[in-house]
Specification:
Blueprint: H1 3-18, H2 24-39, E1 41-49, E2 56-62, E3 73-74, H3 79-87, E4 91-93, H4 105-110, E5 117-124, E6 127-137, H5 145-184, E7 188-192, E8 198-201, H6 203-209, H7 219-222, E9 226-229, H8 232-237, E10 242-249, E11 256-265, E12 271-280, H9 282-316, H10 325-354, E13 364-366, H11 368-378, H12 380-385, E14 389-392, E15 402-404, H13 406-422, E16 430-438, E17 441-448, H14 470-473, H15 482-492, E18 496-502, E19 506-514
Parallel strand pairs: 14-16
Antiparallel strand pairs: 1-2, 1-6, 2-3, 4-5, 5-6, 7-8, 7-12, 9-10, 10-11, 11-12, 13-15, 16-17, 17-19, 18-19
Helix pairs in contact: 1-2, 1-5, 2-5, 9-10, 10-15, 11-13, 13-15
């Protein structure tokens, strides 16, 4: 065959060989071996670019002394390889001793005698990957421009293969990391295709769902054994990026899995998959139900005797002239403490109703003023007794109606007023209630002159049964249910509640609700 056909055939065979593997180390050795063969050189070397420094380093070198070259690093522009990298052009140097660009560091390290070098850049999408060198023709003849064209053509294919292998290696390493992380998770994790087919499930997920062959299974098959909320159809039609998910086994024994499911999107915003992470919450739900039952039982058992106590104590005080001073003080103490206990039981009753997954609301359009006035009316005896100064701002009368359950929202306002006054040791105890309307929502602010709330406590005060230490609240006893009730009811109405506070100056609780209609 003519020479040009032989050259093309060698390049074709070499290219086919380097595209047959994606293992980087194996690929680099293949590239070096074939780099020598395509131009019939004694040795060859491959210098890759260090992205951090821009230096060239000998990743691999072949030949009798080639391995020693791996210790050498060339600075930008150093040596013939550095010139090729800087100028992105091939270099044919058949007498290196007479070339000013030549550096002997490679020969000194490898004890190899370099006479001629053919060096070409390795470029992918205008990005320099490295420099390929062929050293000394095997037959002693000089390198030619034709050799440069052959090696340059081979180097271009090798550069693409190296970048592909690097990408594959990066993906493989990331997959190993992900597999390690998922394997060590106690939570179940499932990766799904947009179609709902499970492509990856960690050991915890397989154990929780009690199926070891989850990979390849459709999520709808899981729904055959679990009641899943939301359903797969609801998940696919959802526009949100993430949401809660719950799986309840349909057959005994009881098993409840709960967590989140997230959409995975590409740069164009297209959904490429879903990731569901969940854990076993069966015991937590069972304990929550037990607490709910306990609260309901305690509140009921306490309420019955309290009715009798609160009914008879006023009757005993109807004729104070017939009572001794001690008897009168004792009965008044009983009445006062029974009122406090009755208030606590009432909160327990309300909170027992809150412990369910949802609250049954009967909403109508009401003015904020009418709901607030009902709450203040119920608290009137307490407010008079402690001489509280309630300042009701005229802005409340200007607010548009809100769509609320009046009974529940009255409890919200009542708890906020009661907390602001009861836990304020300052005298006089002041509370200013104001409102504003903005962007389709109304905000009702309850600003007191109390001791304020420490910053580290503000994230906890809405938790059930949580109370700030007594020296901030004047040693007033409570159960820590009021603000938990406020938060739950407001959120059930599509609203939010927030607190702003400064130590020594007071706190402001703000309820935000959507307007009616």
């Amino acid at each position: 065959m003519p020479l040009i056909e032989q050259d093309i055939f060698r390049i074709f065979e070499a290219t086919r060989a380097i595209t047959s593997t994606l293992r980087l180390s194996e690929l680099l050795e293949t590239v070096m071996r074939l780099g020598s063969e395509v131009v019939r050189a004694e040795a060859s070397s491959l210098l890759l670019v260090d992205p951090a420094t821009g230096e060239l380093y000998f990743d691999i070198a072949l030949g009798e002394k080639g391995g020693a070259l791996q210790q050498v690093r060339l600075k930008k522009g150093e040596g013939i390889a550095g010139w090729v990298a800087t100028n992105m052009k091939p270099a044919v140097v058949n007498d290196v001793a007479g070339d000013s660009r030549w550096t002997q560091r490679g020969d000194q390290t490898s004890q190899f005698k370099t006479k001629a070098i053919l060096a070409v850049p390795m470029v992918v999408h205008d990005k320099l990957v490295g420099v390929m060198e062929a050293i000394n023709r095997s037959d002693g003849s000089p390198f030619t421009e034709s050799d440069a064209q052959i090696l340059e053509a081979f180097a271009a294919q090798a550069a693409v293969a190296i970048e592909n292998a690097r990408l594959f290696e990066s993906v493989r390493q990331e997959k190993e990391k992900m597999s390690t992380i998922l394997g060590e998770m106690s939570e179940g994790a499932v990766l799904l295709e947009p179609s709902g087919r499970i492509v990856l499930a960690n050991p915890s997920a397989r154990n929780l769902i009690d199926r070891q062959d989850l990979e390849g299974v459709l999520w709808t098959d899981v729904e055959r054994f679990f009641e899943v909320k939301p359903s797969w159809e609801d998940i696919r039609s959802s526009l949100g990026g993430a949401g809660g998910i719950e799986l309840t086994r349909k057959t005994p024994p009881s098993l409840i899995l709960a967590g989140v499911i997230n959409q995975i999107c590409n740069d164009r915003g297209e959904i490429t998959g879903y990731l569901a992470v969940f854990s076993n919450v069966t015991e937590e739900r069972r304990e929550a139900q037990m607490k709910k039952n306990f609260l309901a039982l305690v509140s009921h058992k306490l309420k019955t005797p309290l009715v009798a106590i609160r009914g008879f104590t006023p009757m005993l005080l109807e004729k104070p002239e017939e009572l001794t001073s001690f008897q009168k003080t004792a009965i008044e103490t009983i009445e006062r403490n029974s009122q406090q206990l009755s208030s606590l039981v009432e909160k327990l009753v309300w909170f027992s109703a809150l412990e369910g997954d949802t609250i049954e609301l009967t909403t109508k359009s009401y003015t904020v003023s009418s709901v607030l006035d009902t709450a203040l009316s119920e608290l009137a005896p307490l407010l008079r007794m402690i001489e509280a100064d309630i300042q009701r701002d005229d802005s409340l009368n200007m607010l548009p109606p809100v769509q609320v359950d009046k009974i529940w929202m009255k409890e919200v306002f009542r708890n906020l007023v009661e907390n602001a006054i009861k836990f304020n040791p300052n005298a006089p105890r002041r509370l200013r209630i104001s409102g504003k309307h903005q962007d389709g929502r109304v905000e009702i602010a309850f600003a007191d002159n109390g001791p304020g709330i420490p910053s580290e406590e503000r994230g906890k005060i809405f938790q059930k049964f949580y109370q700030i230490e007594g020296h901030f609240t004047g040693q007033v006893q409570g159960m820590g249910l009021g603000l938990a009730l406020v938060k739950r009811v407001v959120e059930e109405h599509g609203g939010q509640v927030r607190v702003d506070s400064t130590l020594g100056q007071g706190s402001t609780f703000t309820v935000s609700l959507p307007t009616a209609g």
